Amino acid sequence: MSDKPSWLKPHGTPWTSHSEKLVYETPWLKVTEHATTAPTGQPANYGRVGFKNRAIGVVPLHDDGTVTLVGQNRFPFGRYSWELPEGGAPLDEDPLDGAKRELAEEVGLAASDWREILTLELSNSITDEHAHGYLALGLTPVDFAPDDTEDLAIARVPFGEALDAAVKGWMPDVLTVALLLRTHHMAVKGELPPDLARLLLA
């Protein structure tokens, strides 16, 4: 981008991988161990979690300034999580197609206006997982069918309440926090329809 600040440039020497050993693999990820040379020149062993899908998150923003959220039990932390509609898109699939599918499957919505608003590296010290975040406007209901392992609750709440819950740590999912903050940033910067921005900032 032409407006990128000059300080956003790489420094030093990249990591170098000399060998790679597969440790564990599933249809969704693989764990590899690497013999590497660190940027300081020191030898190091490095484990990397490689993902076979991109993470996808969607902000379903209604014309009245409400947003649709999903509640479900998450296995890794063993707790209930409220979050934006999310899922995965295979690496050979257009991320937007994955976002459209997840919005329909999880909350039964389709959108007439899609905007990619954020890309993320979710944990770049140990994984190569990328995320794409979308804003979905012009929402209409469609049939939906969650995955057979998902028991989902759906809530439509004022955007301000969702944002407050995210920044207070009540919705700690990183995609949810980042995308709600980005949507608020868009409202502040005049990147949303004026009437909608006023509702979000009220």
What is this structure's SSE topology?
Blueprint: E1 16-25, E2 29-37, E3 43-51, E4 53-60, E5 66-74, E6 79-83, E7 86-90, H1 95-107, E8 109-121, E9 130-141, E10 153-158, H2 159-167, H3 174-188, H4 194-201
Parallel strand pairs: 4-9
Antiparallel strand pairs: 1-2, 2-3, 4-7, 5-6, 5-10, 8-9
How would you describe this structure in keywords?
202 residues; alpha+beta; Nucleoside Triphosphate Pyrophosphohydrolase; 2 domains; four-stranded mixed β-sheet; 4 helices; globular
Q: Could you explain how this protein is built, in words?
A:
- The chain is of the alpha+beta class and 202 residues long.
- The chain folds into 2 domains: 16-51, no CATH class; 53-201, Nucleoside Triphosphate Pyrophosphohydrolase, CATH 3.90.79.
- 22% of the residues lie in helices and 43% in strands.
- The chain has a 4-stranded mixed β-sheet, sandwiched between helices. Strands 1-2-3 form a 3-stranded antiparallel β-sheet, with no helix packed on it. A 3-stranded antiparallel β-sheet has the order 6-5-10.
- A hairpin with an 8-residue loop joins β8 and β9.
- α2 packs across α3 (174-188) and α3 (174-188) packs across α4 (194-201).
- It is globular, with a radius of gyration of 19 Å.
